[in-house]
What we know:
By secondary structure, the protein is an all-alpha fold. It is 90% helix and 0% strand.
Amino acid sequence: xxxxxxxxxxxxxxxxxxxxxxxxxxxxxxxxxxxxxxxxxxxxxxxxxxxxxxxxxxxxxxxxxxxxxxxxxxxxxxxxxxxxxxxxxxxxxxxxxxxxxxxxxxxxxxxxxxxxxxxxx
Length: 121
């Protein structure tokens, strides 16, 4: 039993770490290309946008991980209907939240930029 738990742990951990490394590499390469071909203004734009993007990703991950954990608990209890209900609730929550976040960002984009201390263009 113990061996299978460790095996399962590494089965899911290694792809997750690999995905994080690829994402980090993507960010570095993106910065190189934008810095080289667009310049300082392009890099400034990325740096101003990243906190907002990171917040959106964080909210999505929070709901996704929470939904996944609760779904797994329900499946472990052999409650397939409960698992489907949790999954449906998580997806509907994200679908309801997306337009709200998009609307807030649309109307307060300039304020978010100003709150970060950005000026100029």
